[in-house]
Amino acid sequence: MRILITNDDGINAPGLKTLEAIAAEVAGPDGEVWTVAPAFEQSGVAHCISYSHPTMITELAPRRWAAEGSPADCVLAGLYDILPERPDLVLSGVNRGNNAGENVMYSGTIGGAMEGALQGVKSIALSQFLGPRNAKIDDPFESAAHHGAEVVRRLLANAPWGEGEDYGLFYNVNFPPIPASETKGVAVCRQGRRQTSGFGLEGQNSPTGRRFLWVRGSEQSVDTGPGTDVTANLADHISVTPMRADLTAHDQLADLERTL
Predict the structure, then answer these.
(1) The CATH number of the domain where 76 resides is what?
(2) pLDDT of residue 198
(3) In the prediction, which pLDDT does 1 show?
(4) Residue 219 burial (CB < 10 Å; 0-12/13-18/19+)?
(5) For a surface tag, which of 19, 84, 91, 119 has the fewest beta carbons within 10 Å of its beta carbon?
């Protein structure tokens, strides 16, 4: 099996090392793992692509490249310039922090997996929720490291992928904020929504009088209701959410047509 991996935390991020180990286990001794990751952190860029300027890429080692672009740029670079053949699978992550709930909409990790799916490659995003029970242990990515390969294998073996559809499926996996030994089973969930203020801004003036705006996050450990990803993670489960790039509100089409 040939696997292309990327992330949004950057080529030197510890979560990428975790993903490399997961990918190597899934690919097997005769497989290939190719890494194409951002040269610098790209958190929050969502599905951004560098459409208006070129992307510089650098080979750091065999099958290991850094790109001065977004995770989606990295997937495109891997598919169309670096890999000798198309991969069987794209893995994006393991993100430092959860990509559950409304975080999905901002996540470069999700963007990398989404681009893989748009290109017709099976794709999975993996993220590690952080909290008081795992943030300060020796390996905060422990839950993902221990359970990641098995979750990927199960998805490859049993999950639908939407082949032949306009927008194929990809999967969003979040590991709970706990040690690996306390992690419970997989819960298939919908995307939740934290009923908080979400992202905000804080302004600050520099010593030279220039104005800067800092994006601020909000409380992450907020229950989002039964059957949702955040709630499953807070209950010590690994959440798996099927996703598509199609943003159409299908449930509204019939009523809107009647109204208009």
Answers:
(1) 3.40.1210.10
(2) 84
(3) 98
(4) exposed
(5) 84
103 belongs to an annotated ligand binding site = no
Q: Which residue range forms the structural domain that includes residue 248?
A: 2-193+223-259
52 is in an annotated binding site: no
Cα–Cα distance between 56 and 18 in angstroms, integer? Answer: 25
**Is the confidence at residue 147, as pLDDT, over 90?**
yes
pLDDT at position 251 is: 97
Q: How far apart are CA 8 and CA 41, in angstroms?
A: 6
Is 70 marked as a binding-site residue?
Answer: no
**Across residues 15-38, what is the average pLDDT?**
98
Is 101 inside a domain boundary? Answer: yes
Q: Is 9 annotated as a binding residue?
A: yes
Residue 83 lies in a domain: yes
